[in-house]
Design goal:
Layout: E1 16-29, E2 32-37, H1 64-72, E3 77-80, E4 104-107, E5 112-115, H2 120-129, E6 133-138, H3 145-156, H4 162-169, E7 180-183, H5 198-215, E8 220-224, H6 232-241, E9 247-254, H7 259-262, H8 265-285, E10 295-303, H9 321-336, E11 341-345, E12 356-358, E13 363-365, H10 369-378, E14 381-389, E15 392-398, H11 407-410, E16 418-425, E17 427-434, E18 439-446, E19 453-460, E20 469-475, E21 492-498, E22 503-506, E23 510-517
Parallel strand pairs: 1-19, 2-3, 2-11, 3-6, 6-7, 7-8, 8-9, 9-10, 10-11
Antiparallel strand pairs: 1-14, 4-5, 12-13, 14-17, 15-16, 17-18, 18-23, 19-22, 20-21, 20-23
Helix pairs in contact: 3-4, 3-5, 5-6, 6-8, 8-9, 9-10
This protein binds alpha-L-arabinofuranose.
The site of alpha-L-arabinofuranose has 12 residues, from loops.
Length: 518
């Protein structure tokens, strides 16, 4: 919960103070927290990851340069095939010999067509090569619960049964052992074929989960949540499914054309998690038997407010330095909430809201790639509480899905959907301690555009080595800096080593990660 008393002015000569409380663990940083999302939409897979016509294509049609960039992010899991694409594909169209699959599927709403060549076996192979788990979304929109169970049998069945035999006839004897399934995507929305009411969705899921788990009891199930304070969707879905699900998913996209406002987006996400905590607890109270509390699958989030859906350049954003700071700040929220968040993946990996951007010949790591790479490498172990004393500022932000707000309309300061915050802390901090690696990492965003903050570092319950501290920082000479195919290195990462005297000056509009040995 946000506590305004924790954010006051520090005493001179410092502008701010961080008090690291090493004995107060917020949650563990383990498991499915660093996923990527690859969707059969836009140019994410077709024309991005999978591009047989590119000079960078490997024999299987996937691009070597894109794969190398993906590998740098060390994803824990890969979500596939959607997104909205979930509702357009029957799973049977995404398996078997390519020449027997439909050549293209039309997404009526977007006027896009997508090749089925990169299907489930291809996505499985791609994830495996990355050392990641495949997270499959199931078409709960236009397919039946029986179809969902048949898919599990196809993937994981070991006996001489119809769908396991179908897999064998496709040349794969051993089971795939896919263990993670999401049931539908944003199925509450009218932008989805097969939109359902919460009650219809609960009925579909109860039947599907029962049948899917009869085939393989070891699978994990994610259901669709909304995460928006107030409405009945989450209450109905959670009460109806609390005894059967392992996770509930929430999505959100953010951003505004004003730097200060983008720096407040994390408060919206905090509210979303606070709300969901209450909703899950309420549903748990209705259970008569003991069951593990479902986690949150934060499986679509990113900056998205400029680009639009369409048949060409679908959701293709050029991310700037400010967007990378926003993404870092959202990672902080996720990492501070790992008691509840048990799965997270930014949306998406390539081209469509992509961290990686391509044309036929080239591939660039966008600005938002770098906080992901840094945090994946340096935050591990456990998240610990940090008291932050610092200046505050006022800002405002949409509560939900900025991507669907018209950019012109977003300039209206009095939009009723805007939340107003007058106490956004200038420093946004996340501390992790990994005893096994003997490491403490403190990542800090200075959200003031003009002012450096000389910050005292106080440690309780831990004595880090103040010599040879590694200072990692995101480079870039302005909040508007972008990496493009023509100019790919304006924003990146840089590391220096220094001795600290108990304080550090965080430059204006910056992301810094201090890495201490313990
Ligand atoms: O990220 C792009 C789209 O946004 C996804 O397909 C959908 O789930 C969301 O609305």
């Amino acid at each position: 919960m946000h506590d305004p008393e924790r954010h006051t002015m520090a005493t001179p000569p410092h502008d701010a103070e961080l008090i690291i409380l090493a004995n107060q663990t917020l949650g563990k940083i383990e498991g499915r927290l660093w996923g990527q999302f690859i969707e059969l939409a836009g140019r994410c897979i077709n024309g991005g990851i999978y591009d047989p016509d590119s000079p960078h294509a490997r024999p299987d049609g996937t691009r070597a340069d894109v794969f190398e960039a993906m590998r740098e992010l060390q994803p824990t899991h890969i979500r596939y095939p959607g997104g909205c694409a979930t509702a357009y594909f029957d799973w049977q169209e995404l398996v078997g010999p390519r020449e027997q699959r439909p050549r293209n599927k039309l997404f009526r709403g977007l006027g896009q067509s997508q090749s089925t060549a990169f299907g489930i076996p291809e996505a499985y192979g791609y994830a495996k090569e990355l050392g990641a788990e495949l997270y499959l979304t199931v078409n709960a929109h236009t397919q039946s619960p029986e179809d969902a169970a048949n898919l599990v049998e196809y993937l994981n069945g070991t006996g001489p049964t119809k769908y396991a035999d179908l897999r064998r006839s496709h040349g794969r004897e051993e089971p795939y052992n896919v263990k993670l399934f999401g049931l539908g995507n944003e199925i509450y929305g009218d932008w989805q074929p097969g939109q359902k009411t919460a009650a219809e969705y609960v009925a579909w899921c109860r039947r599907a989960i029962q049948e899917m788990k009869l085939v393989d009891p070891a699978i994990d199930i994610v259901c669709v949540g909304l995460g928006r304070p107030g409405p009945e969707w989450d209450r109905i879905v959670l009460k109806g499914l609390i005894d059967r699900i392992d996770m509930i998913s929430v999505h959100n996209y953010c951003g505004r054309p004003v730097f200060r406002d983008c720096m407040a987006a994390f408060r919206v996400y905090e509210e979303m998690f606070n709300w969901l905590d209450v909703a899950v607890d309420e549903a748990m109270d209705t259970l008569l038997t003991r069951k593990k509390r479902p986690g949150f699958a934060f499986d679509e989030w990113n900056v998205w407010y400029r680009s639009k859906h369409g048949p060409v350049a679908d959701l293709e954003e050029t991310y700037d330095y400010a967007d990378a700071m926003t993404v870092a700040s959202l990672f902080h929220v996720m990492l501070r909430n790992t008691r509840s968040v048990t799965l997270s993946n930014i949306s998406l990996a390539v081209n469509t809201c992509g961290s990686i951007f391509t044309d036929k010949m080239r591939c660039v790591r966008q600005t938002i790639f770098y906080p992901q790479k840094l945090f994946r490498a340096k935050h591990s172990g456990r998240a610990v509480r940090t008291v932050v004393e610092c200046p505050q500022f006022a800002a405002k932000h949409e509560r939900f899905f900025c991507g669907i707000v018209d950019v012109e309309k977003a300039k209206d300061e009095n939009l009723p959907t805007l939340l107003k915050f007058d106490d956004v802390p200038a420093l946004d901090v996340m501390t992790s301690i990994d005893e096994k690696r003997g490491r403490m990492s403190i990542s800090v965003l200075n959200k003031l555009e003009e002012h450096p903050l000389r910050t005292a570092l106080t440690f309780r319950g831990v004595k880090p080595n103040m010599q040879r501290v590694k200072v990692h920082r995101m480079t870039g000479n302005s909040i508007a800096a972008v990496n493009t195919l023509d100019s790919p290195n304006n924003v990146g990462l840089e590391t220096q080593t220094t001795d600290l005297d108990g304080a550090f000056t965080f430059p204006p509009a910056s992301l810094t990660l201090l890495e201490f040995t313990l």
